[in-house]
Amino acid sequence: MRRPALVLAALLAAAVTACGAPSELPEADGVELELARDRVIAAIDTEQRLSASPDAAERLRSRVREIVSSGALEARQLDEFGLAALGELGLAVPSLVVFDRRGVPRELDRAALTAFLAHATTDPAAAMRPAAASAVTQVVEVFERADASSDSEIPTVEMTADVYLADLAARLREVWPELAGELGAVRSRL
Length: 190
Description:
mainly alpha, two-stranded antiparallel ribbon, 190 residues
């Protein structure tokens, strides 16, 4: 008689624990995760372009330098010229720019820009790592505050939390295994 009561108590505790995790994350979290995923993919794509051709890497770095040398991106609060330059930069190397939900450039990632200019032609992985790391940090923060389970649905990307994290970690693993490991740690805590 005592054993069935313990089993029932364990099942109830598991059910209550499972009920604590949302079945679907809030849409704002989904948008944030979608934007972070897009930024990681853009960083990976740019790293591959830089790695594939030293000439292409030099052309891309020259284009970014040209945009930056206009001085329009120097102010923290960008005016219309700064916003236009930010848009040009977003077209050249999207992962150096933080976009909003509508795809409008919102702000410059200055650390990512510095790394890009310093390493684009010599170490493509180092050039793009800050942009990818910033996006991974954003993903980790969303999952820490969301209290999601592995089967929590993520609106806008139409994936569960587990699938989203596994997919993003797999994309990162070849170039930045330590960033993939951070997502793996989040996934194991779901």
